[in-house]
Amino acid sequence: MPEPPPHLAPATPPTAPATPLGAGVVKRPTRLADGRDLIYFDDPDTTLGPDRALDTRSLDPRPATATMRQDILTGDWISVAAARQNRAFLPPAELDPLAPQTPTNPSEIPSHYDVAVFENRSPSFGPALSEATGDAPAASDPPRGLDDLAHLGLGRTRTSVGRCEVVCFSPERSGSFGTQTPTRARTVIEAWADRTAALSALPGVQQVFPFENRGEAIGVTLQHPHGQIYSYPYITPRTTRLLDAIDRTAPDLFARILAFEQAGPRVLLRGEHWTAFVPFAARWPLEVHLLPHRHVPDFAALDDAERDELAPIYLRLLRGIDALYGDPTPYIAAWHQAPVHVGRDTVRLNLQITSPRRAADNLKFLAGSEAAMGAWIGDVLPETAADRLRSAIEGVQL
């Protein structure tokens, strides 16, 4: 990897000591000009030095934390984050806000990097009162716990306490997680584990969600290889339904699902620690789930062996999905983790990759039944999808 250009020569060491993580990854925290956290995660074979340049931009004040409104018909909380209207939309490559800064590109990351994580400038969920520092606005009316959020009432609002972070997989201007090397993928996994632990400890956070949106058909507004992490002040509707399903079936529901799928015709990959499969009741034309064999609630609970195997198996899945039609496939890669305070012994970390691509040139659009009623109609038999994906994955090289 090339050295930083001269104008980005290190100006100061990080504001906090470097911390060694698993697999030889090193964490180097610092801050952006407006006080937002920026954290570098260096590859074990990095060519970068230990210092990082200062962010010397003059930035506008951070926006006020968004407000949530309760939908009394469902109990769902809707965050209204008007500041997101100002975010970058498909900028030219020379103005990539996730690339290292240059004299002509005042991006979000002042130094060259391997993997970088920073607080979103226009977040859907913002800092709580007890963590507000510097230019960070304080939450004026945060939730008072899960019981408070469960109460139904007309016109109920709360401040959208939480945090949104951007995870840059590479300094390159194009690509995705699947285009990274196994070493870089392992660095990102270490970053996800570190951030899951840190965000779970923030006041008011109830659930932490790492994900990657890939492709304009999904709504991606930046071509730079990156993902995000949302930290919610509530348990999301999807996880609430999962907790109910566990209550109605058995505490070991995920172990039962894993055994059921491993014995069936939809397995795509099976390692020592992970199994990937097309689920029995897949909603999307392309849908893949990945489960660890051991019960773990989140990334932070994975051991080194599980993290080591995850990097290549995840890359094979993503590259197989692209190989299915010979070009990049739009998808959402969603890492479902257990809530921070409940369901830790029953909700297992799991990946769900979904894509609307149902043919080389056709997408599935959510129409009346799916979008309005939540009543899904599948377009592809899951067993057929599994056969096609297995064939595509067989040809993948790492």
From TrEMBL:
Pathway: Carbohydrate metabolism; galactose metabolism. PANTHER family: GALACTOSE-1-PHOSPHATE URIDYLYLTRANSFERASE. SUPFAM superfamilies: HIT-like. Its EC number is 2.7.7.12. Coiled coil: none annotated. Keywords: Carbohydrate metabolism, Galactose metabolism, Metal-binding, Nucleotidyltransferase, Transferase, Zinc. The active site is at H226. Residues 1-17 have a biased composition (Pro residues). It catalyses: alpha-D-galactose 1-phosphate + UDP-alpha-D-glucose = alpha-D-glucose 1-phosphate + UDP-alpha-D-galactose. GO terms for molecular function: UDP-glucose:hexose-1-phosphate uridylyltransferase activity; zinc ion binding. The gene is galT. InterPro entries: GalP_UDPtransf1 (IPR001937), GalP_UDPtransf1_His-AS (IPR019779), GalP_Utransf_C (IPR005850), GalP_Utransf_N (IPR005849), HIT-like_sf (IPR036265). It is an enzyme of class 2 (transferase). Residues 265-391 form the Galactose-1-phosphate uridyl transferase C-terminal domain. It comes from the Bacteria. This is Galactose-1-phosphate uridylyltransferase.
